[in-house]
Amino acid sequence: MKKMLAIIMVLLIIFIGMFIHTKNANQNKVTVSEVQQIEEYLTKIYMWQEVTEEALPKFDNINNASDLWTWEVVKKNLESFELSKEEIEEKAIELFGKNFTKRFPDEGSEFIIYDEETGLYYTNGMGLDSLEDCFFIKKINKVEDTYQVEIVEYLEDYENSIDEEGNLLDEYNIDIMNLDRQVVLTFKNTEGEERAIEMVKENLEKFSSKNIILKKDVEGNLNVESVR
Question: Whole-angstrom Cα distance, residue 25 to residue 14?
Answer without folding.
Answer: 16
